[in-house]
Amino acid sequence: MAAQKTQKRDSSNGAFRDVPYMGVIWVVAEAMKLGYYNGNPEWANLGQGQPEIGEIEGAPQRIISFDIEPRDQAYGPLGGSQELREKIAEHYNRLFRKKHSSKYTAENVSIAMGGRLVLTRIFASLDKIRLGYKTPDYTAYEDMINYQKGHVTPVQIPTSRKNAFDIPANEFERTIKKYKLDAYLISNPCNPTGNVIEGDDLKTYVQAASKNNCTLILDEFYSQFIFEKGKPGKRPVSAAEYVDDVNKAPVILIDGLTKSFRYPGWRIGWAVGPKNMIDILNRAASAIDGGPSQPMTRAAIKVLQENYAAKETTALRKVFSRKRNIMIEALTKSGIECLPQVKGTFYIWGNISNLPKPINTAERFFFEALKHRVMTVPGYFFDIQPGKKKKAKSDFDGWVRFSFGPPEYNIIAGLDRLTTMIKSFSKKKF
User: Fold this and answer.
1) What's CA 17's distance to the chain center, in Å?
2) CA-CA distance, 192 to 346, in Å (whole number)?
3) Cα 427 from chain centroid?
4) Rounded to an integer, what distance in angstroms lies between the CA atom of residue 190 and that of residue 393?
């Protein structure tokens, strides 16, 4: 497996350790060696982790300016402004809690400059616990867990392709007990597989966590990217719908403007959960980051206005559903097997094992695709192994994450180049 995940150590590092590259960052670094730069029209970035950020069909106009008020020059509240926290609480109550008497309030929301900073606050706040996780999952979890390895014991839970690399809902409570978990971390919808735990299955997860006092940390950054049988989903998915009492259920939800509202550069993320836990996160913020930007939190209020949010997310599902279908069709015709449960995110988790040699391994596929000015993300980056020495061969060496985050024309160009690449190897004999 690739040693390129970490930078080479040299004496100039001083007391610093070698910090691993996240998958997408490494992908970009390798592409830049061949002339790639952000926005280069000659490249197709099918590895990107952000959605297209321009105007899309049916969506409201992009917000491109806002005023900075005199009060914005000062430090703001550690957990974000009262106004934005109230707006986020309203957003969840409107979408997921109409039938519940227990509602989220501003006290249930903590805002930070991006999802990874929210996660950093959460990891810094964990007690001496056993934290469950599964693979494949979001690459950044590995190093974040490693930062806390002095008191957090990571516990990898086995999964199988048969179950779309997730724990079946009817096995989740048994899993908590078997592995003596104090907390469980998961992205849902899942980055990279696109699998979604929803409906009664998600309700079972929440109930099992509550019953066994296992804190459920749900990264819901792709909550609005929901598709049903190749068509746009009617609504988002969140565990907020199945929480009984918002201040008692040990469920922390993480989301933001980055994916579902297509404003990654604004760096607005949040955690929603019991007010006691949120208070702890805000206290952690006092040492970690000092709170979010005042101008950005004010600007974010407009994005979460009911009419704006509904129009944006409805358009998003329509446009991205079409791009999803284009990508699945092209990859499948090229001999790449796509995981059938692609119901969320803007990624396709593709099995390339049946492609001609030598491009049937993720690393070789990646480097050959770069020659065609196409970026992808090798599957082994999602084989997170906190605190463990990397295996010589990953279970996901035959998998690649493909992104349909870019604009449609760019996706089509990239897929055409990949098709040409695969055909060229089909004609070769080794």
Assistant:
1) 26
2) 9
3) 37
4) 23
CA distance linking residue 88 with residue 143, whole number of Å: 29
Domains of the chain: 3-57+310-426 (3.90.1150.10), 70-309 (3.40.640.10)
Confirm if 185 and 217 have CB atoms less than 8 A apart. Answer: yes
pLDDT digits (tens, 9 = 90+) for 136-148: 999 999 999 999 9
Per the confidence metrics, is the pTM higher than 0.85? yes
Phi-psi region of 429 (alpha: psi -120 to 50; beta: other; left: phi over 0): beta
Q: Hey, what amino acid is at 20? A: P
Give the C-alpha separation, 124 to 220, whole Å: 20
Q: Which residues contact 214 (CB under 8 A, 6 or more apart)?
A: 176, 181, 182, 183, 184, 208, 250
Q: For the chain, what's the residue count?
A: 430
CB–CB of 156/385 below 8 Å? yes
DSSP 94-118: HHH-TT-SS---GGGEEEESSHHHH
Q: What is the pLDDT of residues 14-54, one digit of tens each?
A: 888 877 777 889 999 999 999 999 889 999 999 999 999 99
Cβ atoms within 10 Å of 164's Cβ, excluding its own: 20
Query: What pLDDT, on a 0 to 100 scale, did the predictor assign at position 8?
Result: 58
Of the candidates 310, 223, 306, the residue with the CA atom closest to the CA atom of residue 272? 223
> How many Cα atoms are found within 13 Å in the side-chain-facing hemisphere of 69?
11
CA 122, 124, 129, 134 torsion: positive or negative? positive
Task: Name the residue type at position 105.
Answer: T
Residue 267: count of CB within 10 angstroms of its CB = 18
Query: How far apart are the C-alpha atoms of 5 and 25, rounded to whole Å?
Result: 10
